[in-house]
Each structure stands twice: as C-alpha cells, then as structure tokens.
Amino acid sequence: MLRPRRFDTEIDPGPVQIQARQVHFDVSDVPLHWIPGHPVASNMISLLNVVLPAAERWFVATFNEALPLVQDPKLAEDMRGFIGQEATHADVHEQVMYDFMVNHGVNPQPILDQIEYMFTKALAPGTSPDPKRRLNNLCERLWLIAALEHYTAVLGDFSLNSAWDDHGADPTMVDLFRWHGAEEVEHRNVAHDVAVYFRDSYFDRIRAMTLAVTLMFAFFQRGMRYLVKTDPQIDIGWWRTQRLRCRDSELGLLPKWRTVFGSNTLMYFRPGFSPEEMGSTAQAVAYLASSPAARTARL
C-alpha cells in the first residue's frame, strides 16, 4: 500500500520564481544515527552531505559557463535562480558534513577524494582551441547535469514523502533533507530546459543518462559501504548492510533501488519525457512554506 503523499493537497502555485534561501541547520546535538535504530538508512542519507558539495559546485561552474550564451531572458533568470540554490546546497551540506559527520568520528576524505577527482578532473571543461569542440563539450556536460538532476528530483520527491517522522527521525535532519529535496523539485525543469536549449538531442539525453545512472549506482554502493564500515558505533558486514537497506526501503526510510534505478530511469528514456512528471511543485512550495529553516531564511 502506497503512503499518502504529504502536502499533496496544496493548490498548484503555477510558475514559481527560483530563489536561493539562506538557511542554517544546527546539527551539533544530532546523533550519528539520526533515524533511531536504523544505522544503514541514517548513513545512506547522510552520504549526500559528502557527495553533493563537489557535484553541485560543478553544476554551478558549468551553468556560469553557459549563462552568457543564453539569449532567452526567462531561461537565463531560471538559470540564475538554479545557480543560487545549488551553491547554497553545496555550502550547507559541506558545513553539515564537518559539523555532524566529522564530529562523530567519521572520516569522509576517501569518498571526497573520489568525488573531487570526478568533478574537477574527469568532467572538467574541454580545452580544445576549436570553439565548436568546446561548445560540444559544454553541451555534453549540460546533458549530464540534466540526467543527474533527474535523480535529485527523484530523491527530492522521496524525501518529501518519506516515513522518517514515523520512526522518530531527528527533526533538524529531516528539515535539512526536505528543504533541499523541495528545492530540487522546485527547479527540476531548469537543467533539462537548458540542455534542450543548447542541443535538443535524444541521443545526447540517453548517452548522458547511461553515464549518470552508472555514476549514481557506483557512488551510492561504494559510499554506503564505506560509511557503514567506518561507522564507529556499529559493526556489520556487507550482506547484513544490504538486508537492512532493503528493510529500510520497505519501511519508507530509503528509496527502493528498483524504483530509482529501474522505473524512474526508464521514465527518462521515454522520448516524450518531461521533468514535470517527477514530483509536485505544489507539494514542494507547501513544504518550503512550512520548513523551520526556510521560514527563517533570507531570500
């Protein structure tokens, strides 16, 4: 039986202006296993604090590179809002990583090194002297961002409808991930629209998703195993980690992998796919209006 969607009865607000919210989260008293009795779910969601900063700063750098080439005023405005939100996400999650994870004795450096290499070296802008080749490289990176943003919207929609509250999850961490998730749903169209603006290519979309799903699966598998293995408060092996992940997914504490990497990925392969199909703007805006951190934020 599906869980009723939270905030889903809100009225559609129509087009929204995408703006960064200057939020703050005090995680000094939050336990490492912030979902009590569910260390795997706690660690797997916390992994986002490690993975996201470098990825989102790469998004920002790529959009800043593309922005001067955009002649559509509305799209340029959406891009500026996207850049502001993604830069804020990166800063907030990096701060939480140090204030929360490192202070609990978790060393994220091995994962950070891999993520940093991927986004600062492997996916760095092309340096060809040929302008056409540099533009082609930019288009490829924009389509990869669009594919990765599909997954952030999937995870954002999950966070808004998760069962964390029902299992006594720490309210500050719940607000952190729902604030971020709501903004991902709020701006879920932007990266796709930008990629289409630069090069409307189904082949590029599919090629980018093939790379994105591989990166996402690999980093979540490796990252989850690393955090569980180095967690100073538990000692569980790989098989038990997988069993607990499956249990937590059935409880609504984690997204189901067959959904994330199965149906939600296949959705993206459909020729007529639109990001509007993933998540609800009304639900996202409703949460942001009720979020403790977002309500006290400065726009």
How is the quaternary structure best described? single chain
C-alpha geometry: globular
Q: What's the total helix number?
A: 12
- The overall average pLDDT, rounded, is 93
For the largest beta-sheet, the strand count, sense and barrel status come to: none
Structural class: mainly alpha
- Rg is 19 Å
Uncertain ranges: none
Question: Could you tell me how far the N terminus lies from the C terminus, measured between alpha carbons in angstroms?
Answer: 39 Å
| Secondary-structure element string | HHHHHHHHHHHH
Helix content: 55-70%
Number of strand elements: 0
Percent range for β-strand residues = under 5%
Write a concise keyword list for the protein shown above.
299 residues
Walk me through the structure.
The chain contains 12 helices and no strands. It has helices spanning 39-46, 48-66, 73-101, 109-122, 131-161, 171-186, 190-198, 202-230, 238-250, 257-269, 281-290, 292-295. The model has no long low-confidence stretch (mean pLDDT 93). With 299 residues, it is mainly alpha-helical.
Explain the layout of strands and helices.
Layout: H1 39-46, H2 48-66, H3 73-101, H4 109-122, H5 131-161, H6 171-186, H7 190-198, H8 202-230, H9 238-250, H10 257-269, H11 281-290, H12 292-295
Helix pairs in contact: 1-8, 2-3, 2-4, 2-5, 3-7, 5-6, 5-7, 5-8, 5-10, 6-11, 8-10
